[in-house]
Amino acid sequence: MGVTIVRCIKQIIVWLYNRQQDFVLKVKIWKIQLDPNIVMNKSVRIRHSTILDTRYGGKISIGKNTELLEDVKILTYGGNIEIGEFCSINPGTIIYGHGNTQIGNNVLIAGGCMIIPANHIFTDISKNINSQGIEVKPIVIEDNVWIAHGCSILAGVNIKKGSVVAAGSVVNKSYPENSIIGGVPAKIIKSIK
């Protein structure tokens, strides 16, 4: 009998914890909906610990049936970030908007990825790197793209329609449609036919 009571108490604690998480998430979504710089369809799903930040200017737009899983960070830093429909952005991914980031429809971005449309300038050896500013270039990820775990997509890159980026890749230039790319720096592995 004592085991049954302990089990019931544990179930009640789990239930209360889950309700509290749901409440916190609803409050965060309510705050996001009040931000005029964030526009998203009602069907967008946002998991806990996700951050959408427009405090330095810029806008965030998220299309229908897109999901942002745990610990995703979308930070405009003065640029715009547009995410299409039916996308999935997995835990721990960070998307910056400095030079504008556009993500098409049906895009899968695995966990731990970084999308960074800016780069530090480091051409003048007489100055500290942190005082030389940054260079911003837009990133475009077209429709039907899969970016595997732990990839970095750098400023000025256009990942074309139907492409796959292998896990752990650093993409610093653009490649043709329907390409499988991978490596550091990324290169074409093969074409998808």
Proportion of residues in β-strands: 25-35%
Radius of gyration: 20 Å
Instruction: Give the oligomeric state.
Output: single chain
Task: Using the alpha-carbon principal axes, give the shape.
Answer: globular
Which structural category do the helix and sheet elements fall into? Answer: alpha/beta
CATH architecture call of the largest domain? 3 Solenoid
Using the coordinates above, name the CATH class of the largest domain: Mainly Beta
| First-residue to last-residue Cα separation | 63 Å
Strand order of the largest sheet: 2-5-8-11-16-19-21-22
Number of helices: 1
Total separate domains: 2
Mean pLDDT: 88
Find the count of extended strands (DSSP E, 2+ residues). Answer: 22
Query: How helix-rich are the residues, as a percent range?
Result: 10-25%
How is this structure best described in words?
The radius of gyration is 20 Å and the shape is globular. Strand 21 and strand 22 (187-191) form a beta hairpin. It is built from one helix and 22 strands. The protein has 193 residues and is of the alpha/beta class. Helices cover 17% and strands 32% of the residues. It has two domains: 1-34; 38-191, Hexapeptide repeat proteins (UDP N-Acetylglucosamine Acyltransferase, domain 1).
